[in-house]
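TL;DR need structure tokens for one chain.
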Amino acid sequence: MPTAWQTFPVEFRGGLITNVSPLQQGINAVGSARELRNFEPSIEGGYRRIQGYTKYNSTAVPSYGATKVQGGSQSGTTLNMASIFVTAAVGDKFTIAGNATEYTISNIAVGSSGYNDTNKTLTATITPALAATPADQAAITFVNNTNLIQGVGYFNSEVFAYRDGAIWSNDTAGAWSQINVPSYGTVLVNGASQTGGTVAIDGLTGVPYIGDTFTIAGVAKIYTVTAEPTVTSGGATVSIAPNLASSPADDAAITFLATDRGSNNKLRYSRYNITGTPTIMFVDGANYPAKYDGATFTTLNEAPTDLIAAQFVVNFKNQLFFGKDNLIVFSAPYTDTDFTAAAGAGTINVGEDLTGLIVYRDQLIIFTRRRIFRLTGDTIANFVLAPITLDIGCVSEDTIQEIGGDVMFMAPDGLRLLSATDRIGDFGLSTASKPIQDVMTSFTSGNTSFASCVIRGKSQYRVFGYAPSVSKTSASGILGTQFADQSAQGMAWARLRGIKAYVVDSYYDDNIEELVSFAFNDGIVYQMEQGSSFDGDNIRATFSTPHFVINDPRIRKTLYKLTTYVDPRGSVTGQAALKLDFDQPNSIEPTPVTFSNGATSTASFYGDASFGTATFGGKLVNVFTNQIVGAGRSVSLQYVFDSTDPEFSLDALALEFATNDRQ
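>> reply
TL;DR here they are.
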């Protein structure tokens, strides 16, 4: 006969655990989860459903840069374009300023007769035929937005984005502004009657870069710098393509449009202030580094050639450190443009290709795929390079983040924490993701690229996987909350689903609020940790408890009542299902129960309440009691929420049951 009713309370804590057997988990980690998706282990207790994301700006980041019509008098089904830094593709759609018709690229010839990378021009066959002759230098806007955004971040009170060889900035509304526009002073044509493939100019305060595009007042077409000129006393003769359409007037104004940042790689950067002006340095694995101070964009094309195609950059000891292949090149102290040895600049060979750099506790940590080094000291006079480990490295460049005084990174066997120990100069390198090892293995094998960020206010690390063939709703990620510093055992894990991020950045904005921006290939920059939906779509969140054996795995229990304790911020609606007897085949599966505080709460919700009819100052229902029917030797609760409800926490549950006789 069953005994009197008993209560089995469970506090939710511990996060996702998948590396132990169901019975072990049900006995030793009753508050953990065997499935935890779109919930985060919260530093405030329980499992909180994650916040959503919204568009940072509803205007798409332009494709292919500030593309223009190349030459007037064009008609028919062929169009010449200029100032385009990456080739367009067949099927791309675009509009032309002054013409309402939408055109589609139907063919691009192979080779330079189609896209010419030297001249930054494109000749394309289009449909339909041009409805009217476009003006020379008319703006071309591509509208189907399928190319990746390869970099995103926050600087100078705005978000910036890197796409198709151009870097753009914007606030939360309006059009994007291109920032990779070179500034070489007030540049003028030097002398009349010039013809051919060169033009003499003066007024230069810098050296034009190969791939720069510009216009000449009174002269048709857009021109591209094809060779780096020698500048003497502000004057130079510049090789250009195409040849001059006509002879420019003496002192005709030169207007630079953009500098070439074409690359197939991600944009990485370092924000710093070593000269009194906040500045950001960009590297893209293909071009010279470039810096931007909010007003002027400068390519470091006078720097050593070792800096071409730099992949990483950090500010360490008020010097800029650049990583490329197996080399680290650093500037002289308190400058970002002086790379002379006499001033204190230098080069370090670490012997293996780099996978990342991060400043950690007054030292520079240097990652390769198989090793980790640290650089200590203050200047070239006392810099010392020493190994931390020669057996473990970082296998994914964009997974390195500092969280809670430790450094997280993706190693061959999962996510590891680089932690300082009590011994001076010693480090711990424990595997933080061991409780979800099979999840990590599936995650790394199912994606081709990774991006990561920290949510500082939540002591949280997030890593996102990206695979071109995976849809937005199926995109995966992993979330870890740190509950104890310098301890891999202090991490609690969960899965993410529905956030597709190729690049991501988290940074405190001017209001000291954390802004988490991300992007992929739909042309939009999104803001994470905003709202209660995935840009209007429901957030589907699931939590499955361990299989509770409630004292004895061989005794059958009859279940009568489930009480769920919730910390809501608004309406909450969900379902709870019982999984009996370790959810084995042929086990009985009772009908799920539904709970909601939308109809029973006396509280009013912002945006829904009406003045004069709503109850203000009411309380939210936060305890949900459901009658349940079921019996088994073990029981697991599976909670499912699929809505745009505000975030909420699942704190605990209580099962009321009776124990049957042993059979």
